[in-house]
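Hi U.,

Before I forget, here's the chain from the pilot set. I'm dumping it here mostly so it's searchable later in email.
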Amino acid sequence: MAAQKVSERCPRCAKQVLVLDSSSGEFVCGNCGFVLKERSEEVGYEWRAFSPEEREQRSHTGGPSTLSKHDMGLSTVIGYGFRDATGKTLPSATKSAIHRLRTWDRRSMVHKSSDRNLSIALSELSRLADKLNVSDFVVEHAAYTYRKALERGLVRGRSISGMISASLYEACRNTNTPRTLKDVASIVNMKKKGLAKYYRLLVRELDLVVPVVDPVKCVSRIASRVKLSERTQRRAFEILNVVRESKTSAGKDPMGLAASALYLASTMAGEDDHTVTQKDIAEAAGVTEVTIRNRIKGLKYLWSLKEDEKHYSI
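Structure:
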């Protein structure tokens, strides 16, 4: 008998030795044998197997519900196998009936225009997520944002690809995933200006609160492209922490700040194994060399102030 102890008290002997018999589903007192409950609900996974191969694999009935699918992952799936539970081949009349059922089941999934729109958009979202290499959490957040936009009627008359791309970028911003507007626009074959327009529409109409991108998150991405050492990255982190403490990073491009901090850190650390130019870092970060030169002036000034404070404190 498979048994499990439960932390409750028996109403007869007041002992806290209740035992759950998983084979019979009974709650029994381990002290006096009193049966408190004859049947209990099974809270574990439901396993189903219709063929000998499935019985060996013990496959689950299906995945959990998800917002990244137009039917939430809860629709019925009629398989293409024409065998019954015992493995026997179905007669031709039954095959024809199952084929018709499968056809109407597929048609009934997207019988409304909103369902068809959602199906196309979420398929596009899956493709973009694979290319941008983002996590499932980001995809769920993007699907939730798009569903809210669809309910508000923001998608009507606008590009499905543009709205789902803007939702994905908003999800990256909210989850602190280092993906820029330029990255998303290049994947979806869309101009950065047009994608920014869709993004501003979502933020304005849905009253979204989008956090500012932390430049520290972009350092490792740029450093890996230009092959800078860990010592240079740590020095860049220190420079950006000084900028954060001074509260002078408001309104500045995070990628530009991270690129400038990396270039300044590489010159201060004296990279001997790899000579990095402003052009190399600018191309890796997707900014211009002018942006790096302008940002370096302020970074040098703030870093010199910190060094002076250390000198006077000593």
